[in-house]
Automatic annotation (TrEMBL):
One of its GO terms (biological process) is methylation. Residues 3-377 form the Serine hydroxymethyltransferase-like domain. It comes from Candidatus Beckwithbacteria bacterium CG23_combo_of_CG06-09_8_20_14_all_47_9. This is Serine hydroxymethyltransferase. The record marks 222 as: Plays an important role in substrate specificity. It is an enzyme of class 2 (transferase). Its EC number is 2.1.2.1. The keyword Transferase applies. (6S)-5,6,7,8-tetrahydrofolate binds at residues 114, 118-120.
Length: 427
């Protein structure tokens, strides 16, 4: 047997034994995983349905049509007013698809500052986007750690972008899409909402929607959307020709129709009452987590959350996010280190920790479990603070106190089956 299979078996075990708390991760269903691993992966299909550059695409056309239809339905959108492109391979490519379709080189983009929770692909200086377009960033308010829309309006009037972008990776509060679209309109800009993190919550009606306010929305399909790793663009019908031409042939070759089929399965799952209940529980769980961590003495950015993620500022504990994320990994709790607003530490050793509830909620965990998990997180943080854990991976990995927490966490995690990962051997 290929060595890769034993590596996959180890990863399957890890995903069951540890608590997955990275807010951008989730567990896809068995149906999604089966679809992605199907024969659809054998086929090239450059182009769009009924306009392919390869023969033999009768079934693949049906897959892509169905996916676009289900995506629009998931967000309650009229297909005469809105269109969808499900070919982008990732969130970055979906964003590029919009920029390349609607902007010209040298045009201006106004987007959220990365260390305040924005995203690289919104024009951070190291990216190709920043080489092609002129990018300026807006910030959260230093004190409240939420957006000040008047300030964004003032900045937009001065900078006059062609595209205003909202969204990102670590903003725990609701974004006022109506207000941002008005600001964009007032300066003649398009408004794009990157809803990668919240897409599933929005589709389930558990979080405010950017529709009908935005001109375009982009999202990945594996976060709260709970599908395979992929992405999609939804835009006003009048913009779709430009966006489609931008994605193919502008940016990509063959679409991954096996992934598109998996997205389609996930989109159908999203429309069920079970998923709507799941999405509401994801938010309740995150709010309980935030409350418990605050009660335990931690500083939570913006004082809480409206969605699936919680951002902890570890500066009061004088701890680095790097140290705490590694300590928690030894305790079998998987999180990620993250910058916090107005962070002066480097992105590799940032001052924050980002936690999320989508994957835990997929395993059926609720309020009681969140309280228990908060206690383990607090215990690890307090311990790291007390013993002044060194910035050394090997020392943290060898720590017996953290390993003892890890043992308890593993026994707890194994009580919650992962729906997409069957107990029997195999992939
Ligand atoms: N990697 C994603 C996240 O973790 O939020 C963003 O690209």
């Amino acid at each position: 047997m290929d060595k890769i299979f034993s590596i996959i078996a180890r990863e399957k075990k890890r995903q069951k034994e540890q608590l997955q708390m990275i807010p951008s991760e989730n567990y896809a269903s068995a149906a999604v995983m089966k679809t992605v691993g199907s024969c659809l992966m054998n086929k090239y299909a450059e182009g769009y349905p009924n306009r392919r550059y390869y023969q033999g695409n009768v079934n693949l056309d049906a897959v892509e049509d169905l996916c676009r239809e289900r995506i629009l339905k998931a967000f309650g959108l009229d297909d005469k007013k809105w269109g969808a492109n499900v070919q982008p391979h990732s969130g970055c490519e979906a964003n590029l698809g919009v920029y390349n379709g609607l902007l010209k080189p040298g045009d201006k983009i106004l987007s959220m500052y990365l260390p305040d929770g924005g995203h690289l692909s919104h024009g951070w200086p190291v990216t190709l986007v920043a080489k092609i377009f002129k990018v300026e960033f807006y910030h959260v308010d230093r004190k409240t750690q939420v957006f000040d829309y008047d300030q964004i309006e003032t900045q937009a009037k001065k900078f006059r972008p062609k595209l205003l972008i909202s969204g990102g990776t670590a903003y725990p509060r609701t974004i006022n899409h109506k207000r941002l679209s008005q600001i964009a309109k007032s300066v003649g800009a398009y408004y794009m909402a990157d809803i990668a993190h919240e897409a599933g919550l929005i589709a389930a009606g558990a979080h405010p929607s950017p529709f009908p306010f935005c001109d375009a929305a982009t999202f990945t399909t594996h976060k709260t959307f709970r599908g395979p790793r992929g992405a999609a663009i939804i835009a006003r019908a009048s913009l779709m020709d430009k966006i489609n031409f931008s994605v193919f042939p502008g940016l990509q070759g063959g679409p991954h129709l096996h992934t598109i089929a998996g997205i389609s399965v996930a989109a159908a799952e999203l429309a069920t009452p079970q998923f709507r209940a799941y999405a509401r529980q994801v938010i309740v769980n995150a709010q309980v987590l935030a409350k418990e961590l605050i009660k335990g003495g931690l500083s939570v950015v913006s004082g809480g959350t409206d969605k699936h993620l919680v951002l902890v500022d570890l500066r009061p504990q004088n701890l680095s996010g790097w140290t705490v994320a590694w300590a928690l990994e030894v305790a079998n709790i998987i999180t990620n280190r993250n910058t916090v607003p107005y962070d002066t530490a480097s992105p590799y050793y940032p001052s924050g920790l980002r936690l999320g509830t989508p994957a835990l909620t997929t395993r059926g965990m609720k309020v009681k479990e969140m309280i228990k998990i908060s206690q383990w997180i607090l215990a690890a943080v307090r311990y790291a603070q007390k013993v002044k854990l060194p910035q050394s991976k090997s020392a943290i990995k060898a720590d017996r106190q953290l390993a003892a927490i890890g043992k308890e966490v593993k026994a707890f995690a194994l009580k919650f089956p992962v729906p997409g990962l069957p107990a029997q051997a195999g992939l």
